[in-house]
Design a protein that fits this description.
The protein is mostly helical. Helices cover 69% and strands 0% of the residues. Helix 6 crosses helix 9.
Length: 212
């Protein structure tokens, strides 16, 4: 069965933009069942009427689940494309009413979309934490860029043991400040203070000018 298309050729539901939910009573079950059965047989007009009579309920449920009007419209379009392409032929009136069956499809699609969006957000967050979230210090970056490793090692000897340990974990072991604090079992502000004071000593030893 081909998906209904508009004049421009884009595959979409046949009734235009998604209607916003209104305060209309559900159409009679027998009417919806008849339209759904005709749509399953490829009747485009029946499918369009089915869409018009039910889209407000579908959009309303999708909106409550995904909490985003744009995503709710996308979910609504996906539901009706699913109905047209295959689901209508699978509908069993002995198991559910047409509107109950349709809202079940909508809820599943909406939950899938929420999970998909959350997964994407989690991936972005993880990428940011791995590549953008490390607390770099301008002094440390200038030191790494402008001086040979031997000079840095020599100047590290001028630091206290606690400063040298904290800086080594943060900039040579690749740990975040919080990971350093957890590893040393000390408070995060203490770790930041040790690293900051140690970097100032490094700057003075190496003659790094950090002024703009």
């Amino acid at each position: 069965m081909d998906i209904p298309r508009r004049a421009g050729g884009d595959a979409t539901v046949p009734a235009g933009p998604v209607a916003r939910p209104g305060r209309h009573a559900d159409p009679p079950t027998a009417e919806l069942a008849s339209l759904l059965g005709a749509a399953a047989d490829g009747d485009r007009d029946a499918f369009a009427r089915f869409y018009d009579r039910t889209c407000a309920r579908v959009f309303g449920l999708a909106s409550r689940v995904v909490c985003n009007p744009t995503l709710a419209e996308e979910v609504t379009q996906e539901v009706y494309l699913q109905v047209w392409s295959s689901a209508a032929r699978q509908y069993d009136p002995d198991l559910a009413s047409p509107i109950g069956w349709l809202l079940t499809l909508t809820h599943r699609r909406s939950v899938d979309r929420v999970r998909s969006e959350q997964s994407a957000a989690d991936r972005d967050k993880a990428y940011g934490a791995a590549h953008l979230g490390r607390e770099h210090d301008v002094v440390a970056e200038r030191v790494a860029q402008r001086f040979e490793e031997r000079q840095v090692v020599d100047c590290l000897d001028t630091l206290t043991a606690t400063q040298r340990e904290a800086i080594g974990l943060a900039y040579y072991s690749g740990r975040t400040y919080r990971e350093v604090a957890d590893h040393l079992d000390v408070a995060l502000p203490t770790v930041k203070s040790r690293i900051r004071d140690g970097l100032i000593r490094l700057k003075n030893c190496l003659g790094v000018n950090t002024d703009a």
